[in-house]
Write a sequence for this structure.
């Protein structure tokens, strides 16, 4: 039987892929998005891909705007659960403008959960981040590994985790904070994908833009890290695996009879270096990616790699897609949409 879910930030990269998975499961979605770093076109394409399964309504609004959130809860029927994607996610920007991060990420979450409390909707999946672990020294990274965020982006995500933990201790709330590692790739159709504004910060979209000839070469940020090839290691996971994880998490929470507070790593457990990703992309697509080594990027840590076992134990979820899948699907999206959602 389909549920009705509120998805904040549902037009974004992870939100749009998750919306599609939930619609394919027959759910009715209400998306709240201010299109700050996303496009309504993504939702149009999600509807096209869902092909009559489930439903999707849109409210254009900001999660900090109590009236907009109230309107979401009052429009249509009861909301059975919320996935809260809406937020800011650029590490460097958070260092330069911390108050904006505390406002959007923390205050936005407070406004949302206050409305949920008022309307008796206490089931929530929250987008957290593997960067809450800071610069860890020991691996694998388990959920009980101490958190030590080193920039405002991660600090605000951890603050929300703590706020939600406190809410759960008041009773009745069922909350999962999912600590995403590095989501990449796109839906295999090539219709929806990641659409960064301007020069991409992140490795994957940069690689696909170099492969497409839109940028001359990749700058590899440092080859003197204490890793086997000297380049940084991250746990990249396919965005469709991450989208599936949200569906499974909501199902799990809705089955819990009592107050539940979950914090789960969402990754593959297999870290890859920058050069391993570059060469994996070349193998998957047959395209050479020119690169040069440049100095380290400030704020980068040598390695982040999930221990994903808790998610498997609690949810029965584990990532199934390979690096080849991530590269092939990300490349299909880039080729079909050279300028993202802005054209074609
Ligand atoms: C990965 C690796 C870089 C670009 C950030 C956020 C995180 C998350 C995802 C929200 C690193 C190297 C990168 C480039 C490179 N959240 N790199 N050349 O830094 O792990 O995580 O994005 O979006 O919260 O912190 O991801 O893709 O930027 O970098 O060499 O042009 O690739 O040094 O080792 P990161 P990333």
């Amino acid at each position: 039987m389909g549920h009705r879910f509120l998805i904040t930030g549902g037009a974004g990269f992870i939100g749009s892929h998750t919306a599609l998975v939930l619609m394919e499961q027959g759910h009715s979605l209400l998306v709240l998005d201010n299109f700050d770093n996303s496009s309504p076109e993504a939702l149009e394409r999600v509807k096209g891909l869902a092909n009559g399964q489930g439903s999707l309504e849109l409210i254009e609004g900001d999660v900090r705007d109590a009236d907009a959130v109230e309107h979401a809860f009052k429009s249509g029927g009861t909301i059975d659960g919320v996935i809260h994607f809406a937020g800011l996610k650029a590490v460097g920007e958070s260092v330069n403008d911390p108050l904006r991060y505390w406002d959007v990420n923390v205050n936005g979450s407070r406004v949302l959960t206050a409305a949920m409390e008022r309307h008796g909707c206490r089931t929530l999946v929250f987008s957290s981040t593997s960067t809450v672990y800071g610069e860890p020294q020991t691996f694998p990274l388990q959920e009980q590994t101490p958190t030590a965020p080193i920039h405002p982006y991660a600090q605000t995500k951890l603050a929300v985790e703590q706020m939600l933990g406190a809410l759960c201790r008041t009773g009745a709330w069922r909350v999962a904070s999912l600590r995403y590692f590095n989501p990449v790739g796109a839906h295999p159709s090539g219709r929806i994908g990641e659409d960064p504004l301007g020069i991409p910060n992140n490795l994957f979209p940069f690689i696909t833009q170099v492969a497409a000839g839109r940028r001359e070469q990749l700058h590899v940020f440092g080859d003197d890290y204490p890793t086997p090839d000297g380049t940084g290691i991250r746990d990249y996971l396919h965005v469709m695996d991450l989208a599936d994880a949200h569906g499974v998490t909501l199902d799990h929470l809705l089955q819990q009879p009592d107050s539940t507070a979950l914090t789960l790593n969402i990754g593959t457990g297999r870290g890859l270096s920058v050069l391993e990703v570059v060469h994996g992309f070349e193998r998957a697509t047959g395209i050479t990616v020119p690169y040069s080594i440049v100095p380290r990027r400030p704020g980068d840590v040598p390695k982040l790699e999930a221990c994903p076992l808790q998610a498997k134990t609690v949810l029965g979820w584990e990532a199934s897609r390979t690096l080849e899948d991530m590269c092939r699907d990300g490349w299909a999206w880039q080729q079909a949409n050279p300028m993202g959602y802005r054209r074609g």
